[in-house]
Write a structure and sequence with these properties.
This protein is of the alpha+beta class and 126 residues long. It has one domain: 2,3-Dihydroxybiphenyl 1,2-Dioxygenase, domain 1 (Roll). It is built from two helices and nine strands. Strands 1, 2, 3, 4, 5, 6, 7, 8 and 9 form a nine-stranded mixed β-sheet that branches. The protein starts with a strand and ends in a 6-residue tail after the last strand. It comes from Thermoplasma volcanium (strain ATCC 51530 / DSM 4299 / JCM 9571 / NBRC 15438 / GSS1).
Length: 126
Amino acid sequence: MKVTGIGWLGYEVRTGESDYLKAVDLFKSFFGIEPSEFDRESALFVLPNGDEFEVKNGASGSDNACNREVAGFLVDDIPSGIKRLNNIGVSDIDSLECGSDGSCWQHFRLPDGTEFELKSYSRVKQ
């Protein structure tokens, strides 16, 4: 398994829908692009190089919110990455998820509770 970059970064706004919408507007202006996906729970910005930045509405009541800020490490092989995490003592690992775009990701937490994910743009066999 090789880490090839940061493939996704998530940011959770936890202070209400108004602040969530302000944050989305701020990033629209900053990036100079519209979100590729947008609803009351999240806004996904796909940057020109393919990197993804997602703003989550933590006050939406959705279980789709992230835990603070979450970085997704782009890897070429998620199962090998999970095996490596297990081998170095990381055991708090969620189930593999895949999107309709063919990307897959798997969240894990460090002992202090900080959440990260492994991400791949190649569909992973489940």
